Amino acid sequence: MMSTNTLPQLALTPELAEAASACKAWDFEEARKIVRRYERSGYPEEVLFETGYGPSGLPHIGTFGEVARTSMLRYAFRVLTEDRVATRLLCFSDDMDGMRKIPDNVPDKAMLEPYLHMPLTAVPNPFGGNYESFGHHNNAMLRRFLDTFGFDYEFASATDYYKSGRFDEILLRVAERYDDIMAIMLPTLGEERQATYSPFLPISPTTGRVLYVPMKDVNASDGTITYVDEDGAEVTLPVTGGHVKLQWKPDFGARWAALGVDFEMFGKDHGPNMMVYDSICRALGGRPPEHFVYELFLDQNGEKISKSKGNGLTIDEWLTYAPTESLSLFMFQKPKSAKRLYFDVIPRAVDDYFQFLAAYDSQDMAQRLQNPVWHIHAGNPPRIDMPVSFNMLLNLVSASNAHDRSILWGFISAYHEGATPQNHPKLDELVGYAIRYFEDFVKPTKKFRLPDEAERAALEKLDARLAALDPHAKGETIQDEVFEVGKEAGYENLREWFRTLYSVLLGQEQGPRFGSFVALYGIERTRALIAEALAGNLVAGGA
Questions:
Q1: Could you tell me where the DSSP H helices lie in 341-389?
Q2: Which residue segments constitute the domains of the chain, with CATH numbers given?
């Protein structure tokens, strides 16, 4: 177990308390469930929030999302209770689970074949480094990001809890109430599985594998199970000390009962099993936690993201192309709606974040609590001047073929007088992200086309209008001229005119507000770009 950081300070004011009481943001709505949970009986010494993690593959962003969202909810709870109640967030890794299949995204799949069905913390680490096992490596990857982001949490390993005796009491209770647990589980299973099912999974003392075998005997008085091992020998093991683990559904309910968990969220795929988890928790003498079921993340093909498949985005991949705040925004917004989690969502998330941040200072407290940045930054968002959007930077890289920061900063400094990497460090960070994102995702898909005769005439007219403008004209002035040219060219839907500009001049279907782009890129450079397009040089040169 490890603890990181400390909770952010809570500056509770009457204005904040009043706004919080009426706030309809999802995390406040869910936090009120926990308030109602204890409004009659009074609060315990500590309210426990939990997130679960299955380290069968490298962590993906969905895993991070549970911690981020739970942390937001935890902070909302603190506001609602005026910070009078101690809280804790436990990130629990089911790393004693058997490796049922070899993940697709490991470097040497053959290396892991002899270790199928062994606990993840007993499987060698295929990634190298100084980690004891595959499970330890994957746990470390999760903790590294959570630490980088500054979450306040404790990390818990199922292997440690089982082997250290932390779960001994609840395991003995499962043996004692074995028939009650079976009565809950059997109706949820098919006939064939019913015949062999047991909530206990012994760890074979001969092969080290996690075994799905029927029990010959469950002895509650001495806390043992008896079963037939893989070699045909009858084996009796204690249920304590890490000799067995629980099947995943009983494990949910037993863990809640053992630890006194008050809140846990999980994906829609767990929704049908929620009543089973709750029933097992009650059967073992616990009170089920409050739940929040969120929609699943999908990859670019609309399929559920899977750690073992390695589809969708990893945490490191998102952070290669965008700041962490954009990822938090993506997690906060519409958690009950299914969302594609792929590279093409990143630019929008980045720009939306800075737009919300720019609006924050002018808002009253009620509006601030509806603003995602309040939740992302635990009520204390930073003040950042962002004069250029991420999408604009991407298009600037595209038009200029710039591959280093200094060239882009030449454009930015001319557009926004006095701006430098030193006094706009966050913008400089975005410049680096934009270059990487363009090279990896935009450039390979760029496809220029030649204008037809009508489009050529419109572009020539646009060139003439730009030539007549002040070289330092503002974006709005330029945008007005672009609109007028489109109208004069006969475009009934001006979106088609802008699509023409994007596809002919930038080689892509969508683009920025064109007047702002010209102001940033420069009128003369834009005219040169039009000339290149009319001469066919952009098509000839490709992307």
A1: 346-360, 365-370, 372-376
A2: 2-298 (3.40.50.620), 446-543 (1.10.10.350)
- From residue 55, alpha-carbon distances to 64, 91, 133 in Å are 13, 12, 11
Say which residue the tokens 């746990």 belong to: 139
Q: Where are the alpha helices (DSSP H) in 388-513?
A: 390-400, 405-415, 425-437, 453-467, 475-488, 494-501
Q: Cα(113)–Cα(121) distance, rounded to whole angstroms?
A: 15
For residues 10 and 522, what is the distance between their CA atoms, to the nearest angstrom? 46
Structure-token pair, residue 325: 């705040």
Over residues 12-36, the mean pLDDT reads 94
DSSP 90-126: EEEE-TTSB--S--TTSS-HHHHGGGTTSBGGGS--T
Q: Is the confidence at residue 515, as pLDDT, over 70?
A: yes
d(CA 527, CA 66): 49
Residue 55: its pLDDT value, please? Answer: 84
pTM: 0.87
What pLDDT was estimated at residue 62?
Answer: 77
Nearest to 265 by CA among 257, 250, 277: 277
CA–CA separation, 8 vs 145, rounded Å?
Answer: 18
For residues 499, 503, 505, 510, the Cα torsion angle rounded to the nearest 10 degrees is 60
pLDDT at position 311 is 63
Burial class (CB in 10 A: 0-12, 13-18, 19+), 262: buried
Amino acid at 429: E
